[in-house]
TrEMBL record:
Belongs to the anoctamin family. Keywords: Coiled coil, Membrane, Transmembrane, Transmembrane helix. Residues 232-658 form the Anoctamin transmembrane domain. It is found in: Membrane. Its main location: membrane. It comes from the Eukaryota. Residues 661-688 form a coiled coil. PANTHER family: ANOCTAMIN, ANOCTAMIN-10. The chain crosses the membrane at residues 240-269, 275-293, 346-369, 389-409, 432-453, 533-556, 623-645. It is a multi-pass membrane protein. This is Anoctamin. InterPro entries: Anoctamin, Anoctamin_TM.
Amino acid sequence: MLTQSCPIPCDPLDHSLRGCSRPWDFTASLSKMKVTLSALDIHESSFTPLVIIELAQDVKEETKEWLKNRIITKKKDGGAQLLFRPLLNKYEKETLENQNLYLVGASKIRLLLGAEAVGLVKECNDNTMRAFTYGTRHNFKDFDDDNDDFLSMAERQFIIKHELENLRARDEKMIPGYPQAKLYPGKSLLRRLLTSGIVAQVFPLHDNEALKKLEDAWYTRFTLKFQPIDRIRGYFGETIALYFGFLEYFTFALIPMAIIGLPYYLFAWEDYDKYVIFASFNLIWSTVILEVWKRGCASMTYRWGTLVMKRKFEEPRPGYHGVLGINAVTGREEPLYPSYKRQLRIYLVSLPFVCLCLYFSLFVMMIYFDMEAWALGLHEDSGSEWTSILLYVPSIIYAIVIEVMNRLYRYAAEFLTSWENHRLESAYQNHLILKVLVFNFLNCFASLFYIAFVLRDMKLLRQSLATLLITSQILNQIVESLLPYWLQKKHHVRVKKKVEALKADIDATLYEQVVLEKEMGTYLGTFDDYLELFLQFGYVSLFSCVYPLAAAFAVLNNLTEVNSDALKMCRVFKRPFSEPSASIGVWQLAFETMSVISVVTNCALIGMSPQVNALFPESKTDLILIVVAVEHTLLALKFILAFAIPDKPRHIQMKLARLEFESLEALKQQMKLTAENLKEECREGGKEKAP
């Protein structure tokens, strides 16, 4: 045990490196870990690999050596102080492929110090949530020097990613061996290596044992049960867990709508008085579920610690470029790009391109209506059974075309948004989401609005809505999960045969796992998953008074979606890095906007019904005024409900207020102590000057 106090001030990481114990002591259990504090395990040859770095095939040896040294060098010397070794040793490299794969890990102490650096929030023994600090580690629940499970694997991998991304250039002007890959002080080395193509990819490894347990509790047995959201969060992180939590919540929230909508279909109710009741319930339902979700989300993220996690200053995104200059906020050297140039690109290029795509979408929609008219004319002429089936073909073809156009437009939107050169990842995501949502909304719903308000054909509206909803759900299941899973299984078989044929004395299990996972597709985030739910919400809410059965189809789809998305995360894609999240972000606003639009469309549809029109045979102006008044009343009711239902439960509000109070008190104490120290120094200085 070390008991000597540190003679000089030091930060937590340097503190442990010097082998000092101010203001805490290390226990004898550290010796069981075979940890030497002065080196902090940087020379361990055997460790648990958490992250894989794959270099390009032709990377020069001097570049590899430089990268290795920067990763294992002590923190105080500008390194990441992580554990690093090649997947294959010298002998194995001569007999095997994949020579540019490297394993990255960290010692327990390094991970705990990293947890403090990234600001992870954990539960204390007094049941409060506080930012973890290494010095007070024994005050946190479930912490023990012999317990390696205090940090989840997702948190450990997030810490390593953070440390790798914060490896910054010091006095280097370029990456060794690559004069064209320029560096400047403060530049993230990993981001420069990725954009230069020197590093092919960086990804976290799966934990096969933990993954198998998660799968057994999650989706391998198809039963109606709640998802293990906390275990998903422990393995994949908060962002993924929030998506699955929202998917589960949204599915259960759809059940009342589905139950109420079934009688309208089973008994063929055409009485619009009953549709008014259903539409009114829908409008209240869409508001209440979104507000209740906010409360549930706040409870979850408080329990996970992300609700009280301090927001970090955002670094420039990897693709950001410009003329080298000094950031006025940070004082650091980084690329600077004039805002007016970005605005010119947005308004002179991106905006016209989006408008052109919207026009093309409407042009395709008119072709669809020509196909509908042709199929209807053919059916009226012949009246045969096969022509009645043919009536559904134009809608199916149009649904497929919509999905193809959505995916092609997504690639174009990503290229344009990247070309706009946004400095922050959050700004990039917001502009991308806006572009994609506008196009997807028009592309998916324009035909339905046209049928409802121009053609005024309610029968065709029901048919088109049902066809678009069901076809899009089937296509998404196939394209997102089933097809990638089948391709991945074929690749897995090929890799297994290759590994079994090896004669070399290697850790075949680890080698097979790394080679298999590096070829998996990269999960690009929850964007497409939320977009699918957003469009589904639109199909259910926008035209609910015309097709109440939409909610039932959405429930059936989501019950399988939970399992197919779980399969996709566990077996199809590489494991994504954990990202702390406190909410579903901008998607909350998107869903709320859709619910407001649904008020307008449902009121307009009910106002167009023959029964309502019959009440005002002479004056259509009175009808329009009444419909507008009802619509405004319902919107006012929505906003009153949204205001009346707090976003956070009362007990969460109290805990957050308590934490804020304690933080302010701690700040006051710190300022008071600083002031007293300054006074003491002034008094001592005065005594020295006195004769």
